[in-house]
Design goal:
Helix content is 33%, strand content 22%. It is of the alpha+beta class. The protein has one domain (13-99). The chain has a three-stranded antiparallel β-sheet with strand order 1-2-3. The longest helix has 18 residues, at 49-66.
Length: 108
């Protein structure tokens, strides 16, 4: 059985904004002590269906990361446009983290 890696009670977070289609989002990320993405939170237009879906997807991604699923596996599992770019807000945010080399993101 795989165990969940617990996060420190106090941890540094990084927040950035991005667009996915016509919608704007804010992502907040936290990292494990030794590096590596540990959790992501997404916020969109409050009270909207796209906001709820983005938040739910981020919770599931965070749980997966804490149970040891690599960032690269999560990224490959998400929907992509014909040009390879992420089609949903979680895919776009994880691409930014992985490709921009934010702490713990690396080039997954």
């Amino acid at each position: 059985m795989t165990f969940r890696q617990r996060l420190d009670n106090r941890r540094e977070s990084i927040t950035f904004t991005f667009a996915c289609g016509p919608h704007k989002y804010t992502a907040t990320t936290s990292y494990f002590t030794g590096g590596g993405l540990a959790e992501i939170f997404l916020d969109g237009r409050a009270g909207s269906d796209v906001d709820a879906a983005a938040k739910d997807s981020a919770v599931l991604a965070s749980i997966g990361l804490q149970y040891g699923i690599p960032l690269s596996v999560l990224r490959r599992a998400l929907m992509r446009n014909e040009d390879g770019s992420g089609s949903g807000p979680l895919a776009v945010a994880l691409d930014i983290i992985a490709l921009d080399g934010t702490p713990g993101g690396g080039r997954a």
